[in-house]
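Revision sheet: structure tokens.
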Amino acid sequence: MGQNKESTLTNKQSVAWKVFAAFVSDDEEISVTEDELLSYATDDLKLNLNELPAGMRDDLITILLGYMNLWTGWKYKGDFLAGKFTKTHYFERFQKYMCYKMKNTVQWVYAASVVKDLDDQQIKPVILNKPNNNTDVEFSPYAIEIQCPPDMLSTLVFSNIGDDLIMKQHRAAVWQDLSTTQLLNWPHVEVKFHTEDICFVRRQKTEFVRYLNFLPPESSKLSESKIENAENLHTSGRQKDCYSYVFLEEYMKVYMKVLKSTFKVSSSKFEEIQAILSQFLEDVRYIDVNDSIATDTVVLFRLSPVPFSRNKKMARKDDTEGKDERVAFCEILNPKIELVLFYFRAEQKDTPTLGFAYTDKIKISNRLNVILPDISYKCTYCKLDYKGRDSREMMLNHLKSNHKMEQHVRCTLCNKYFDVGNLAACRWKHKCHQYWSHVEKE
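Predicted:
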């Protein structure tokens, strides 16, 4: 039954199949007349030539061929020729792409022509489906930009009814309490740690790519390097120094030991300080640049070698098994951290018991509010800062009140689903057998 359907669809000598077959096979040339392409536009893409904007009719053939050539699905031509998916599947995706692109182009040209006639108003049409050739959007006719309150961002879902696209909100997941480590690796969270000896900023810069698609996001791209960018801060008069991981680790141990033994620091505050310093040390070790880091340096690096994804679809009563034509809202997540080390001034003392000038100062001080580090947080999405002794609690309250709990994500390589809270607790690491198999082959 399936073979009959495929032969009926692909063996008919339609213009759509002739053009498609010519693109698939490098040995064939596209040989269709202008009349045949116009027939393709009306019969296959359901365009009414009489209703097209005047400025579009003259360029219709060029637009058709341009979109055919730009379809991102062509990069899967090798998989198609190798028989990894059927002719029907591949051809239908091409047709869906062309239908959506041409329909939207007609709407945009019409909107532009209307705006052009409004000489007394400064109005510009807004293009919602800008193609983005830098993103991995398999078979996708749309790349979209979303601007909305943070509590909507994780609850959006798209679908289609006929040729119309609809957007709704679904129920948000119940918010979970986050540990300091989870908070530090949570999307849109930045922390600044400041003492007399050290000052650094650690901001979560997860990259989100969002688009509409008929298929779940499939991407097996591995990052070639952990570090995406490294640069020096432009400071005047400040000496740039480099410190090893071993030296930094030893300083952190002494600092925490002195802080714990000298003052009655609350367990929550002690845990917070320890978690921040531990994540900083993990960052230095993870980026692995001569096992060290320099002051006045900014490093942007990936936490995961493979991206994660979410594919949201709106449940409908008319869903049928084996035939799902719904548009889905796809998200690709690339967890990243930007680490900025402004300065580190620890002076090691030549004493029988290893120590540092600042930690010795702590021992003889009775001013806890001065000795405790200055820790501030920032929501980079909302651009709100939280400072003071209760900055952590204020940051958590902001997330609970203004954001929604992150939904589960799927590893695009091993296809397993993971809770974002669990991933944040272990720096977005997971047991990806596919990845380690790839590393061993390399």
